[in-house]
Amino acid sequence: MTGPAVPGPLVKCLVWDLDDTLWDGVVLEGDRPVPRPGAVAALKALDERGVLHAVASRGEHAAALAHLAEHGLHRMFCALEVGWGPKSEAVRRIAAELNIGLDTIAFTDNDAVELAEVAAALPQVRCYPAERVGELAALPEFRPGPVTPESRRRREAYLTERRRAEAERDFGGSSARFLASLDLELTVLTATEADLERARELTARTHQLNTTGLTYDVAELRALCASPGHDVLVARLRDRFGDYGAIGLAVVAHVGGDAVLELLLMSCRVMSRGVGSVLLGDIVRDALERGRRPVARFRRTPVNQVMLVTLRFAGFEPVERDGDRMLLARPSPEPPAPPAHVRLVDGRQR
């Protein structure tokens, strides 16, 4: 079994079987297998690029985690599903835990039956036999482009997010009170040359929280930054647990009396923080302060309905429709209320 001829979206997470895949042997049968060198090399190469790793394997969770820890690999995995149920269900839970689409997940296993079960239940997931693990880093779907600081920190960011989730489970109060306790700070900056590779990466990786699905290469972003008729904005987020890095991007075109939001996207890992509406509100306030009408383009995709909901809640109303494309405008001259749970820092260059 191999991956599809057309790779589709870039792989954000590779889900591993353990026994006879990551290592030769079965831990619960008393084996003490050493991880395969080729598998470890693939783990590290993909991790460096920002591809996450997770586990969907047969066995007992404690034993698997202990064996991973024995070989210094336990922190390489952002989610561990070890048990006896269908692996497709384990993969589905991993996607939900990491808040990424199933079409951005790949799965590797030594057992052809397990591969077939996952492929049949989750056709969006790309499946690869264990003997191909050493080849994966060379495949286009595993090559997101130049490595950015955020790429190198992605695994740690997800592990930090796990600590946040644990803190939320232990919090005892409402979700709103927990968000307020995070001391969230969103900084909106005019993109500079140093931001362009990360901005390109965001357009390539972000599908669910993306208003138009547009992608830009670095040269296109550089040209937009130099254009007097455009603003390219990068949003950075931090809280009391640490720095999320650059998690949002917006491209605004100034056309006549309109400020046209050509693209708004947010990293899926901050979906639960409610910062997409905060960034949108800041863009609306800036447009109104300049005496411009806030306008937004939206193109429907199979996964981005939440962004249309975000636009509508912010007061945008449809004014033009053309198939899956829509133009929305915000008729109200009143600025949106400032965010209650996020400290907003305006770092734009004006």
UniProtKB/TrEMBL annotation:
Q: Where is this region: Disordered?
A: 326-350
Task: List the InterPro entries.
Answer: Acyl_CoA_acyltransferase (IPR016181), FkbH_domain (IPR010037), HAD-like_sf (IPR036412), HAD_sf (IPR023214), HAD_SF_ppase_IIIC (IPR010033)
Q: What is this protein called?
A: FkbH-like protein
